[in-house]
Backbone:
């Protein structure tokens, strides 16, 4: 299975960072293992190439309201 | 500190939504996982919503020391409420007891992830962390004190789970399930009992 081995080669380089853990959140669409590996590989290439710069935070514009107020606003 | 301590820290929160950054801040302040990096990534087949990769990065050529880097990937096309759940679910893998860190483990993990349910009698242990991870995240993002008050409103037909999902900025699908099962499973997820002001 070429896609799996391509992904494994990316995750376990002979030099440099060592993989300590890997997990996934299942997607919306049913896919085959090859399709999954192809998309995972493409995602990690985006990360490792620097094409997707990392962010330390996740800024949100949230309207935070107490539960009591939410329940009172019927 | 551990996952139960995180759940306890948010359990009395009765103002929603819980900001994702509040969860990231707690992890940075209370665990060794200070280096957390978030990456929105393009997807084409929607094979996965998010991923967690922890790396040990060598700090020099002549030592065996590593710096730990936690990478959270999430689909850049996901709706905001899904991004929130995916990011928190993925970063909570810092607390997992089963790691995937060999080629053989990756070969086992991926077929198990794309299987919709834990179908086998003894599933690959790290996949259980993946499966439960979503509910571990829900315990933080829809915490106990608020959740119980909201469940009462649903039982009294004053609110719907869709309205609560919109209020908490979380996917309707998981809010509906979590409001139903949380009282039974939360302590099991934590492996302990929570003390919450009522």
Residues:
């Amino acid at each position: 299975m070429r896609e799996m081995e391509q992904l494994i080669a990316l995750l376990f380089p002979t030099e440099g960072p060592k993989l300590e853990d890997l997990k996934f959140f299942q997607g919306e669409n049913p896919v085959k293992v090859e399709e999954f590996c192809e998309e995972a590989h493409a995602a990690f290439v985006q990360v490792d190439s620097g094409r997707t710069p990392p962010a330390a935070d996740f800024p949100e514009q949230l309207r935070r309201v107490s539960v009591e107020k939410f329940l009172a606003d019927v | 500190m551990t996952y139960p301590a995180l759940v306890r820290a948010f359990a009395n929160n009765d103002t929603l939504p819980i900001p994702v950054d509040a969860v990231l801040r707690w992890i940075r302040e209370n665990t060794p996982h200070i280096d957390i990096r978030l990456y929105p990534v393009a997807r084409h087949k929607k094979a996965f919503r998010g991923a967690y990769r922890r790396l040990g990065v060598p700090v020099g050529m002549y030592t065996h020391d590593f710096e730990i880097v936690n990478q959270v990937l999430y689909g850049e096309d996901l709706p905001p409420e899904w991004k929130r759940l995916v990011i928190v679910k993925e970063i909570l893998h810092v607390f997992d007891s089963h790691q995937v860190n060999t080629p053989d483990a990756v070969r086992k993990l991926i077929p198990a992830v794309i299987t919709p349910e834990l179908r086998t009698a003894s599933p690959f242990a790290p996949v259980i962390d993946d499966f439960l991870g979503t509910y571990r995240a829900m315990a933080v993002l829809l915490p106990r004190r608020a959740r119980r008050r909201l469940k009462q409103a649903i039982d009294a037909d004053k609110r719907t789970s869709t309205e609560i999902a919109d209020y908490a900025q979380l996917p309707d699908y998981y809010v509906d399930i979590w409001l139903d099962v949380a009282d039974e499973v939360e302590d099991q997820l934590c492996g302990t009992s929570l003390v919450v002001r009522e």
